Amino acid sequence: MKPEVSHALPHDAALQIVVVEDSPDYGALVQAMLLEHWPGAFNIHAFDRIELATGWLAENTAGCVLLDLSLPDADGLDGVNRIQHVAGDVPIVVLSGNDDEQLALEAVKGGVQDYLLKRSVDGPLLARAVRYAIERRRAELELSHLALHDALTGLPNRVLFEDRLELAFARAARAQDGGRVAVLFLDLDRFKLVNDSLGHAAGDEMLVEVSNRIAGVMRPTDTVARFGGDEFAVLCEQIGHPRELIAVAERIRAAVAAPMQVRRREMFVTASIGIALAEQPNPHAETVLRNADTAMYRAKDHGGIEMFDRRLQAAIAERLKLEHDLHRALRDGQLRLHYQPLISVDGGRMRGVEALVRWQHPEHGLLQPIEFIPLAEETGLIDQLGDWVMNEACQQLARWQSDGRAIEVSVNVSPRQLRPALADRVAGVIDSTGVHPPRLCLEITESQAVGDDAETMLTIERLKGLGVKIAIDDFGSGYSTLTYLNRLPLDQLKIDRSFVTGVDLDPHKLQVLSALIALAEALGVTAVAEGVEEEGDLTRLRAMGCDAAQGFCLGRPVPPGEIDALLNNGA
Ligand code: C2E
Ligand code: MG
Ligand code: MG
């Protein structure tokens, strides 16, 4: 059905119609024709100079402008441009004399809504032209709004944001007051999880709430945009000191982090924010946005807010290279496993070893896990790396086994690997290497095992079902509850070295450590103390009845051949 034009007329009591026409007679004629044929209420404001009309338009809102194309102070399209400059949204109908129809057509191309030839205008035609002009302008504005805004949140989209950014650059360059332009790039943490677990409708609801919260803590003149997905951008102008930006980012983070109701559930979401200042001179929208994006990625690993700078750029480049190198390392066999002894506290026998991965990097030498495990976890390479470690460690265990060595091998498992499929992989490796499952111990860090994540529980139970042992690594450093400890089928607690190293000289540490050992005993699992660096610490552990210990004073991580040597020497 075609909408009836008159329904869509402005609801205002009276429409303000501006007539710019230097001939008083023609002006009066227009007024008379409208009076007769216009269905609604209106006021006419007639001006004979463009300057007077633009003066009025700068202060008032017009419903429509009827514009003569030849005026004493504006000729041709100049008049159109000047009206559009002060009142960009107003519909314009140009009135042209016989000789400038070509010009009128140009004006339509330049954005006016209609033109009428003065000599053939009559009342109905004029009234209809005004109505259509109003409607057409409204539709145009609607369309351009759609093209420039995000449909879900109504916020500006990337296109409009970039446009405003360019305008801000221009303003800053003109102002020359040292005020700078900056972009904040915001991404919600683990938003995908919300979408995947609660559905897209809930995700959308959350995004709308988040957008309101961001806008709520910004000035109305700041631009807050949604770039799609869970990405938002904020444009800040007139920044004196970068500190101010950190304060803005903190305000946004706090607003987003407050609990929210989504589908009648209480939800929490956090945001990571990257900040980039426009470079000077000659800033580029694309560069500033890319820098803010880079800083945001960095913010994901560094507690939420990060400011872009040159050093960061260098670090990112370095990281990209490392990631590339790590791919190659897996392919070209640059990874190694070192083994660190686990010693029985009474008796001093080597009861097992922990496999610790190293990377023999062609340029950087032997890299420690801290230098590449986090990267592998973020990039997903940890699955491949973990598989390699599991396979390599089990092959080594199989060798020791066939040499008649009664030692266990412990393998570290990353949170990301801890999914039900891991059990199948481990089963495959046990099969292919022929290791005796109870000789293999999997170390899970405390934080992973926490909570009642059903998938994690299922994985651990499946692993346990294979007959392997399960250890909680770095125990005490996470946030565990005793309930979860009770529920997990555990064999070992590896007490974090922060409770162990230097225990001999620290009575408070001694108390905590003895409580942790007692807890392991109560749970019926083996207590292993990590980070034993001094003989004195070991003596304490013995006195407290700790089962096993690991640490530099008992043996550093070494290549497997050196473990053989130790075993041969009767360790
Ligand atoms: P972790 O599992 O807690 O391993 C023990 C770490 O403590 C090792 O560091 C070891 O060298 C160090 N250590 C041992 N004794 C002492 C001591 O007396 N004093 C001190 N200060 N440190 C000691 P490393 O080899 O650098 O490994 C660090 C972490 O990297 C490991 O902590 C583990 O979480 C992770 N990691 C190592 N290899 C792998 C692997 O193959 N896969 C995964 N996912 N993570 C691994
Ligand atoms: Mg470990
Ligand atoms: Mg540990």
Descriptive labels:
single chain; 571 residues; alpha/beta; Rossmann fold; Alpha-Beta Plaits; TIM Barrel; 3 domains; eight-stranded mixed beta barrel; five-stranded parallel sheet; 22% strand; elongated; disordered N terminus; binds ligand C2E; binds magnesium ion
Q: For this structure, what is the CATH homologous superfamily of the largest domain?
A: EAL domain
CATH topology of the largest domain: TIM Barrel
In whole angstroms, the N-to-C terminal distance is 91 Å
Taking all Cα atoms into account, the compactness measure Rg is 36 Å
Q: What's the CATH C level of the largest domain?
A: Alpha Beta
The molecules bound to the chains, other than polymers, are: ligand C2E, magnesium ion
Number of helical stretches of at least 4 residues: 20
Average pLDDT score: 89
Tell me the count of domains. 3
CATH architecture term of the largest domain? Alpha-Beta Barrel
What topology, given as strand order, has the largest sheet? 15-16-18-19-20-21-22-23
Low-confidence stretches: 1-12
Amount of helix: 40-55%
Count of individual beta strands: 23
| Largest beta-sheet details | 8 strands, mixed, barrel
Shape: elongated
Fraction in beta strands: 15-25%
Overall structural class, as computed from helix and strand content, comes to alpha/beta
